């Protein structure tokens, strides 16, 4: 049967441990270098502590080394890869193909989504060159995933939640073009979240200062079963920059949904790690940071993938302003909604700009006093983007993850044997040869022994059943029984931990001459080649003429900066392939341009491939 893995992000060890405790089967985390998130590097010692905690539940830790590298960085990258292996990580997530020319540790290699895993033939290629897993492009449909699964043997990982990159992954150079901060080097400045004008070739504005490239957040909560049946093994939550509340909420949500599938379709799927998660809250992903939700292209193209008005989180609608006096508001609350001091609210002012305020007081009549803010109007919709009570509840540490186990006692020849066995078949026995007396009252002794052996405290075990010998029972003083139980559980956990082994790399039959799937005579900056080992790798696979990657070029002007499935021609009603949902503007003169204060981009449309391209266009063409 196929195992299903819930993969969670962690910007640090604390969030990583919290993700494991809330039910993650695996966590991905960045080391101090090459981790694709400059702001969240972690020391090798912290990552080692995280691996030891994760392995208690047979959960895994994946280290991200998914940035592009210059020649001078290759030696450091090689050393770091081995240090991570020695720290216990279970896989390396990489982008730069130069790493494949190195002697890497014998653990699985995952092809980052930054390797542009958008076509079946590319996934086949990655399997042939040694990857055990491929992180799929977010733009793929469930049907696409099913076709890839049928044609390959590599593990498939798919994003199911979190922020969406508007560009095809690994193919975005806009940030580096604007401000010298490279997404492929872990320092994206997110120009896609900025406001732009959309103008036609005459200079006519079709949109004024709108966030035209800002996508909503992905939410595939309702698609766990179809994704699993399509071939997805790993369900990945995006968010290595997110806080602990966000991670807890998302992990709790998908843990419940994956467990539902495991329970109902146990003949098809099994869990990927061990332990029962007992949440102390009801997950509600709309109550932590989000930009609104979309299923993107998992089913079919649809207009509900963008939020042109703001790139910020607006939360869920709670009501509408009914009356105003000074900085107090009477809000007609939606059914089931209630505000408390500490809640964060937002609304759109008459200029369609998002404004925020904080609830300071709520009186008996429902009047709400907030921090001083201008622009609130009667009739305005009010949204809550910070649910104070929910976030407060999330900060509690009452959620537990436990290994369900039983304890059996045997008493023969003055020797007590205690055996603990978990539901996964692991067991450990200890013997105590001591002159215990026979208990005078079996019923009372049975109660005391059962109660004493069931205590598991702050350990990872949950003792479901205690089986005692028939006939006479030993009288064991409470203090001695507690010590015996503690020793037994500690030894059992040590045994379980010592038996955990890092998974080996399974894909070892590497075809070093397998041709690269795209017929490329000369590769431009889209090849993302910045070092000699990457050139060496691609030469083996048929590509010998390679231009310098974008980050290594001196002249970065007038190049293609992005290719995206998000199409502004479709969004404004000018698509010839799909039924439009808005009235198209008349007499539009192509080409179209995006303009900001400091930049100008030319839009091109490949309707056969159903993609939009964005080129740097600093001057009139």
UniProtKB/TrEMBL annotation:
Pfam families with a match to the protein in the record: DUF3656 (PF12392), Peptidase_U32 (PF01136)
Source superkingdom: Bacteria
Domain Peptidase U32 collagenase: 382-496
InterPro entries (alphabetical): Pept_U32_collagenase (IPR020988), Peptidase_U32 (IPR001539), RNA/ubiquinone_mod_enzymes (IPR051454)
Membrane spanning stretches: none
Protein name: DUF3656 domain-containing protein
